[in-house]
Amino acid sequence: MTDLRIGIVGVGAMGADHAERVARRTAGARLVAVSDPDTVRAEALATALPGDVRMIADPLELIADGEVDAVILASPGFAHAEQLFACLEHGKPVLCEKPLTMDAASALRVVEAEHKVGRSLIQVGFMRRFDPEYAALKELLASGELGRTLMLHNVHRNKSVAPTFRSEMIVRDSLVHEVDVARWLFDDEITRITVHAPKPTSLVADGVLDPQLAVFELANGAIADVEVFVNFQVGYEVRCEAVAERGSATIGLGSGVLTRAAGQWGGAMPADFRVRFERAYDIEVQRWVDAAVRGEIDGPSAWDGYAAAAVCEAGIESLTTGRPVDVDLADKRQILG
Ligand SMILES: NC(=O)c1ccc[n+]([C@@H]2O[C@H](COP(=O)([O-])OP(=O)(O)OC[C@H]3O[C@@H](n4cnc5c(N)ncnc54)[C@H](O)[C@@H]3O)[C@@H](O)[C@H]2O)c1
Ligand SMILES: O[C@H]1[C@H](O)[C@@H](O)[C@H](O)[C@@H](O)[C@H]1O
């Protein structure tokens, strides 16, 4: 069978990482084109990677290109909506990095446009669903061995982020992962969100609310809390503890290799998500490629991206008022039939 020919739009940190993945270690796929407004960066990447990778300056041209079968969108969130509509117009399967779009209204338009096409073409890059630890936690909770899950406690810390990363991005770009994790682990919708902000770390610009503490209330009565702290300084740390009726389960303790030496004990912390979630991204992309060949998706759908956008929109409102905000989610059955 011939390889799925993939084009990547946006080759900054994440796009370049995916480009390496597709070009070197994804079975049944071939990287054929990259696009980025920074054409020098895109050209350099295209030249460095194995195979014949073209640089196409205009992302919409890459999406329309007859030799590109499927697209990975790793452009910034503000560019996703237009590029997703182009993928739908050309009938191209697309793995879109989170966030699906910048707000709930545009995300819902994407869901509706895909529904009109009549095929699931969009998969959202909520890669934690493919992380072996998260997958094992999901399986354990679903088995019922611990009884009903009551609460989740989550920690999401980045070593640092660019100074352009503002308070609402902490919700839309970082907290959005736990929004998806909570919806996925509970298999339920978040109906209300509250985002508290303690006095910020002194290591961010004035006005940036970092860290934040979010509380999600789910339709089934469960609650999830999340500390999100994107300028933690130390390293990348993502943890999740599920508390159930007859026990708890924790993932993300980073207990790979613990050493004891010179009167101290400990291990290494990954510098960022590319290291911590490398395996998750590999599995995500491989399964997306395999599903695209079958004309399907195999992961978070456009609806999941929309639902997360609706929760984040309410979260950003809560961050400014300090009050709980109900999530305004469209009726799935009415939209998708
Ligand atoms: N799943 C994850 O864990 C994860 C991790 C990091 C980033 N992301 C997501 O990936 C996307 C990219 O993030 P990043 O960290 O690589 O950012 P980045 O700033 O490192 O890279 C973005 C790239 O997109 C290019 N770009 C800007 N405007 C564009 C446009 N209109 N069309 C095409 N390319 C454009 C920029 O020149 C840059 O090279 C974002 O949606 C982000 O939220 C996801
Ligand atoms: O875009 C990144 C990415 O999604 C990471 O997985 C997350 O930990 C960061 O907070 C976010 O800025």
UniProtKB/TrEMBL annotation:
<comment type="similarity">
    <text>Belongs to the Gfo/Idh/MocA family.</text>
</comment>
<dbReference type="Pfam" id="PF22725">
    <property type="entry name" value="GFO_IDH_MocA_C3"/>
</dbReference>
<dbReference type="Pfam" id="PF01408">
    <property type="entry name" value="GFO_IDH_MocA"/>
</dbReference>
<dbReference type="InterPro" id="IPR000683">
    <property type="entry name" value="Gfo/Idh/MocA-like_OxRdtase_N"/>
</dbReference>
<dbReference type="InterPro" id="IPR055170">
    <property type="entry name" value="GFO_IDH_MocA-like_dom"/>
</dbReference>
<protein>
    <recommendedName>
        <fullName>Inositol 2-dehydrogenase</fullName>
        <ecNumber>1.1.1.18</ecNumber>
    </recommendedName>
</protein>
<dbReference type="GO" id="GO:0000166">
    <property type="term" value="F:nucleotide binding"/>
</dbReference>
<feature type="domain" description="Gfo/Idh/MocA-like oxidoreductase N-terminal">
    <location>
        <begin position="4"/>
        <end position="125"/>
    </location>
</feature>
<comment type="subunit">
    <text>Homotetramer.</text>
</comment>
<dbReference type="GO" id="GO:0050112">
    <property type="term" value="F:inositol 2-dehydrogenase (NAD+) activity"/>
</dbReference>
<comment type="function">
    <text>Involved in the oxidation of myo-inositol (MI) to 2-keto-myo-inositol (2KMI or 2-inosose).</text>
</comment>
<dbReference type="GO" id="GO:0019310">
    <property type="term" value="P:inositol catabolic process"/>
</dbReference>
<keyword id="KW-0560">Oxidoreductase</keyword>
<dbReference type="InterPro" id="IPR023794">
    <property type="entry name" value="MI/DCI_dehydrogenase"/>
</dbReference>
<keyword id="KW-0520">NAD</keyword>
<dbReference type="InterPro" id="IPR036291">
    <property type="entry name" value="NAD(P)-bd_dom_sf"/>
</dbReference>
<feature type="domain" description="GFO/IDH/MocA-like oxidoreductase">
    <location>
        <begin position="134"/>
        <end position="249"/>
    </location>
</feature>
<dbReference type="InterPro" id="IPR050424">
    <property type="entry name" value="Gfo-Idh-MocA_inositol_DH"/>
</dbReference>
